Amino acid sequence: MASTINKSPENHSSRAVVMKTHKFYFVSQISLRCLAIFATLTATWIMLTTKQTTVVFGIQLDARYNYSSAFKFFAFANLIACVFSVLSLFLAFILSSKEVDPTYYFYTFLHDLIVLLLLMAGCAAATAVGYIGKYGNNYTGWMPICDHFAKFCHKIIFAALLSYFGILLYLILTIISANKSRQIQV
Q1: Greatest CA separation for the chain
Q2: What is the rounded distance in angstroms from the CA atom of residue 155 to the CA atom of residue 139?
Q3: Between 163 and which of 43, 59, 74, 133 could a Cys-Cys bridge form, CB atoms 3.0 to 4.6 Å apart?
């Protein structure tokens, strides 16, 4: 009688649904992590190579990312997120073909949440300094610089947009991981 229960059509179809869900989970993990690697690596590369020299009132001035601690934090936050994305991508490849312990999903959730928060902090810092660079602050006497360093500012904006795209990708990854980690039996 036990052999007829295991061979029932309902048991076979439920196993097929579980396998299809498992495959969809890992395909989405791999594709979203690849996109996150591209976004964060490109944002890092743009930040590290962005510089501009211009003459203002007869004085030669430079604009570089490393002149601002917020831009340095932004560049290295993206670099760390990229490295962690590569490591988690390898782990996703390895575990996609195996039966996975359910606690893996919880650790993936924590990883994705930490990277999401790191990217958010870096983007917030870069956005704040970028806003002051574009519009200045009359109350403190900080003048806008983007009218003199337009190329530099446009590259910073593009890097920030790529990093915000990385935030969106990691938000989706965090939601997927949180949903899968709910399956842990306590």
Answers
A1: 93
A2: 27
A3: 43
